[in-house]
Amino acid sequence: MDFRILSKDPETQARTxxxxxxxxxxxxxxxxxxxxxxxxxxxxxxELAVELNVPIILGNTYxxxxxxxxxxxxxxxGLHRFMNWERALLTDSGGYQVFSLTGQxxxxxxxxxxxxxxxxxxxxxxxxxxxxxQRKIGADIIMAFDECTPFPCDHKYALNSMExxxxxxxxxxxxxxxxxxxxxxxxxxxxxxxxxxxPDLRKIxxxxxxxxxxxxxxxxxxxxxxxxDEMYSMVEIVNSILPENKPRYLMGVGTPxxxxxxxxxxxxxxxxxxxxxxxxxxxxFTANGIINIKNEKxxxxxxxxxxxxxxxxxxxxxxAYLRHLIISKEMLGAQIASIHNLGFYSWLMQEIxxxxxxxxxxxxxxxxxxxxxxRL
Amino acid sequence: MDFRILSKDPETQARTxxxxxxxxxxxxxxxxxxxxxxxxxxxxxxELAVELNVPIILGNTYxxxxxxxxxxxxxxxGLHRFMNWERALLTDSGGYQVFSLTGQxxxxxxxxxxxxxxxxxxxxxxxxxxxxxQRKIGADIIMAFDECTPFPCDHKYALNSMExxxxxxxxxxxxxxxxxxxxxxxxxxxxxxxxxxxPDLRKIxxxxxxxxxxxxxxxxxxxxxxxxDEMYSMVEIVNSILPENKPRYLMGVGTPxxxxxxxxxxxxxxxxxxxxxxxxxxxxFTANGIINIKNEKxxxxxxxxxxxxxxxxxxxxxxAYLRHLIISKEMLGAQIASIHNLGFYSWLMQEIxxxxxxxxxxxxxxxxxxxxxxRL
Lengths: 376, 376
Hints:
Largest sheet of chain A: 9 strands, parallel
Shape of chain A: globular
Structural class of chain A: alpha/beta
Oligomer: homodimer
Helix content of chain A: 40-55%
Low-confidence stretches of chain A: none
Largest interface: A-B, 41 and 41 residues
Number of helices of chain A: 14
């Protein structure tokens, strides 16, 4: 992996960069659509690549491990081949899912024992086997196993959890360094800063992660219900410690406004289910604000989904038609809304990069924030 | 509308033809994918047109009438514009849905009073308003209002029902002839032969429908649970009476084998939810037989979905991947299976037309039937 900063905004911490991965080059800041179970819901791989020009997607280790299972992925020659996705991939570590999705789980020094949400079967994730599992999945970027603390969470819990995550990180890095890739390309491991909303813990964690010697760094445990200001303030503290010359990935974020604010704080990578999940429920993001397509006001609006949008769904279908499909729970409604929203996110990231390169990011951001939050 | 027979099979009643409609030319025999609620589930309009080369689809009047409602469709300028489908459209009359979907319905001489399956609201369909509703929907081909008898159904019920359908037909034709199209193209009305599985009734009904003077004829009340041989035998009786020079549409049929057998009996048009609905449940039709993709045997089969298939999904995705998606209830699984199956149906109809034109249909059909029924 190679990461090069291409330009810096003079007024904020925003920067553009180029991330070279075995499966292609990624311009940063970048948004990664979420392909939980080896599929970005409702979207064909060729639509992601050609129509939406997505350079990297995220897969969830927890889901892929449970189904179709690591043996099948391994026999397929890795997740890229299994799902026929030739561009870059990042897999998370499963920590977030184990702690949020499964009813039964038990945390020990060794790792996390949990029951599958699918069939109740018991499994153990450890810092070591999570590396080995992600070796077999074969993403370009893999994540260290961490405990993602809930919100709210008291200082003592957050401290103990962070220390456990740090001990797990040492074990994960050891496993990573002592093992070879399963396929014919190199992978990189990103460690994850934790510490809930406590500045002292975030500082300690950022220092630990910064000293790990890994190729990139992630910030976890945010966007889990805390006020947005707390999130930004944690990101600011952490980014003041994480080295500038490595990519910074803010996990699970976020809305368009969250993204432009976090870019201003020096974040380079994002992933979130919002554009696809909220899209399926009828929420459309546009450069002029948010549309709730279920609203009665769109019933007879036969104008295009988004006159300024640049994916084919924006001009081929009307708002009235999309409203009808979403209300009728027709699959095509979810497909159209998901493509529209991911197309908008692609545009947003491109525009963010343009504005940073032109040195006009700060002013544009303040204007854009108002427009993006508007309810149409 | 213009219908021209292009070739006749010397050994069966099969024929090829060209149906000219306001929204394009349709080569027959043709299969019409079902777009119940103004969408063929899981498939974009451009995929239907460009990828699957579908010349005509079917919309369900009952569903469209209830949601988005006829006023919205009218304001949109008709269903073609509402859903952005530029090729031909056929709408059914709602009779089948009223009698099969709704819990509460009451049949009178006037029409059918029923409750919406969506919100329980009460509505009345009559032979007259069903014509007016389909004028506003604006399909190229519209259907007369009929009672679709269930199976089994005793002779007395079938007789009374058929006579009611015939009286309704007279009223529907009167309404059709006395009204103008709502948009700038002509529509045609197809009457429907009923009579359950009773040869005497099917003969009477076919004679009534043949003498209606309409541009094409449909056969209803079949493929509702009766043995396949009964269905073929009814089709044979009816087709011996319906004039040769007008298109014959067998409603709601069917499997690939049903289609080739019915083509041999002189049917020109088909519609059915099987390729899409069964596809969503993991049943794939191929030229070599039927695949239940949920079967364990495909778990690690990384070969293409259908090596002989001609839609993009056939070569871009593997059987193992499709199995994973269908079992995981991922939308993309339903999308892939639906496109595959409709692609197969398109191929099948093209091949049927080729074989008829070459005069080799009969031998091909007997070979093909065995292959198509095989479980892979």
